[in-house]
Design a protein that fits this description.
The complex is a heterodimer of chains A (145) and B (112). With 145 residues, chain A is of the alpha+beta class. In chain A, 22% of the residues lie in helices and 34% in strands. Chain A has a six-stranded antiparallel sheet, covered by helices on one side. Chain B has 112 residues and is mainly α. A two-stranded antiparallel sheet of chain B has the order 1-2. The chains are: A alpha+beta (145), B mainly alpha (112). The interface between A and B is large, with 48 and 42 residues.
Chain lengths: 145, 112
């Protein structure tokens, strides 16, 4: 099953402006630190604030000015990035007639406890959206409760 | 919380396990033997799948005489669904902040 979250928004601002903001690693976590933007794959930026904690963010891939992908350990503030505890965050930036569309997909919530090939096979076997599945199963479960 | 949700996704990633969960969802508690009747896999395979479902707290079992009967635990599924909903809402908020920030700066000419 697909373990992903998707959200999107339309922004009334120039593409360059939106791209600059969206492609900054860890922009979505408030930070008192202000590191220079580095899009080199593998580069880690640390975002840190008293309120939200410390979050290293790693660059996975950046394709100016349409796609930026990062990894972070959203559920483990303060911890270094480790295999098995990071989620994958992808941003797409698409120009529209009346603005710019930004889409985010966060995925990878399933643990990497199981060997990679077991998980991959399991994920590929599912062709339906997870939301539908969960909703259906939840309805059934609620009826049985 | 995150560790259990990880397991829920792994548990739900297998079609046989999804089928088992659906079967259990609409009926009285059932044994592995009963459940295996509906499936093209052995009772032993069904037991292994039920173990994964139990590890992720989607299913629980009770002994009834000489049998072990399995039933769904709705709470884990509901809490996972609600966790995902909360996370989606978090991203909605972040994008709203991004929008406000992007739209608040007057456009400046960008030299390439």
């Amino acid at each position: 099953m697909e373990d992903r979250i998707e959200s999107s928004i339309t922004i009334d601002a120039p593409l360059d402006r939106v791209w600059e903001l969206v492609s900054a690693p860890g922009w979505w976590v408030p930070s008192a630190l202000n590191e220079r933007v580095d899009h080199t794959p593998g580069h880690q930026t640390v975002r840190e604030s008293e309120k939200w904690g410390r979050f290293p963010v790693e660059v996975v891939r950046v394709e100016p000015k349409s796609y930026a992908a990062f990894r972070w350990a959203s559920q483990f503030p303060g911890q270094d990035l480790a295999r098995g505890r990071t989620t994958f965050v992808e941003f797409r930036v698409d120009p529209l007639a009346d603005g710019v569309r930004v889409t985010v997909v966060e995925s990878g919530f399933a643990a990497l406890d199981a060997p990679d090939d077991v998980r991959r096979d399991g994920m590929q076997q599912n062709t339906e959206g997870w939301k539908q599945e969960l909703a259906q199963l939840r309805d059934r479960a609620e009826q049985a409760a | 919380m995150i560790t259990t949700i990880d397991r829920v996704f792994v548990a739900l990633s297998d079609p046989t396990r999804r089928h088992l969960l659906e079967s259990l969802g609409g009926r009285v508690p059932a044994s592995a033997t009963t459940l295996a009747r509906d499936l093209p896999v052995s009772r032993q395979a069904v037991l292994k799948h039920l173990q994964v479902l139990q590890d992720s707290e989607l299913v629980t079992s009770d002994r009834s005489g000489r049998e072990v009967l399995f039933r769904v635990r709705p709470e884990r599924l509901l809490s996972t669904a609600s966790w995902m909903t909360t996370l989606a809402a978090t991203w909605d908020e972040r994008l709203s902040v991004l929008k406000a920030q992007a739209e608040s700066i007057p456009a400046e000419p960008v030299t390439s």
